[in-house]
Automatic annotation (TrEMBL):
Stated name of the protein: Uncharacterized protein
Keyword terms of this UniProt record: Membrane, Transmembrane, Transmembrane helix
Residue ranges crossing the lipid bilayer per the database entry: 71-89, 95-114, 196-214, 234-259, 348-366, 398-417, 424-443, 455-475
Origin superkingdom: Eukaryota
Organism: Effrenium voratum
Amino acid sequence: MDLMRGVPLHVALSGWAKHWVSLNGMFNLSPSSYQLSRPVESLENFLSHDWATSRWLKLLSLLIIFNSKPAAVATFLVSISVGLVAIFLQLPQESWVWLTLPGHITWLLVFCFWQRLRSFVTQPTMVFMDKICIAQHDDNLKERGILGLAAFVRSSNKLTILWSPRYFTRLWCSFEIATFLRDASRSGPKLKPIEIMPVKMAFLLVILAIHAHAQSLGFRFLSYMASQAQSSRGLWVFLLAVITLEALLAQPFILYIGIDLMKEVEELPRQLKAFSIRSAQCFCCSNGHLNPETKQALPCDRLLVYQTLREWFGNEEDPSVDYLDTFDTLVQKRLFGKVMRSVTSGWYISYSLTMMFVASMPYFTLCMLETAHGPDSLEGELWIWLVRQFLKAAKYPALNVLTFCTYMAMFKLGAVLMRRWSQLVSTVLLVPLTLALLLVWFVPVEMSFSFTGGLLPLAAVLCEALLAGLLWYLTFPSAEPCEAKDVKMHHVGSVGSIPALDAYDAFSI
Ligand SMILES: [Zn+2]
């Protein structure tokens, strides 16, 4: 119990995730990082990651997991409050354009600093982070901490994996998974959730969100300029030119990384199916059990891990069953379905929607002000005007989700193109298509509002929402096929007699 330690999330994230920098394996660590953790009774998240993956990618992943939803709530509340205050103060129409700024700024601040902010008013979220919670400076403490890893897992509510293609090739990451699977076998159907965040996806989501915020702000100011000028046609052309230019600059970058991500995700099933703990790498073995800097002998972590795996997965009644094979089978068959569900569909829905929706929220302020101001002319029915006002508020959330789905579809298409062409050529091929699609989504909806009086925007926004739904359906496979495969594997699997697997099945099916 004295080794059970957790670290407040805002401490783990402090200094833009400076504690996540890889320091030559996990060596050269001072006792000071251990001092950042404190004894705890329970933990919220068990953070599992491999050290070679970029600190910045891990930072963005953690910000999305822990801060994106509070940021959305804060942005919504601020946007609505600014609208109410502006209505109350009867601010002149010329100043409205500035009123979307507080919403965007709130999002950025809460997204970056939420854990720090909340630590001032409430108990911090306690998480497990290997480098800080297990002593690295004292071999004896380290060994006891590692042997007690199961206790850390048991006390955590959720396993959060910051995934990169290296993850399942590392011995320590595999061991953390083993700890989790073993805990699953003991706690029965009350299995804790696994959340897998591909770190590159986090990067893409942040880029797309910032892109959407910048576009929203830019569009507000350009439309404001258009409304101030007398002839709007010239400004429309200018507006389209700016959007096209911006898209031409940002798109190749987004597409290039997105295709890379899809390739990695496509590789994941193969990686899991071929999983072998014997081929998993660790720092000590890769360096011939000598510290590369001091040339001092290093104890072998693999021996420690194997010894623990034997205790957990060994079969005393039938010694012919190899415990390492048992563990490999657990990962290859039982973990497979859960990981694939989590990576291909599960988590996208809530985080992606949150990140994309929120960029359109500051615009709600303007919609509120316009609605409170009332129609400019008395022509037409009031209810039609009100429906149009509502559609104005709804068009950007729909457009942002549609943009996201379009990009995801393009990434998938890019991964298909890469079977024949290089990543660069595939990206170049996709740029005009993506640009054309995004303009096709954007222009008709905007145009439909320029016809005064009618309900044309209703058709346009409905089409937009339908398209978003269709693309979503095509891009994200539903969880069904994966689950069906799981059930089938349960029947044909040859390892059904191992209690650990049965308990895991009880949950996964
Ligand atoms: Zn070794």
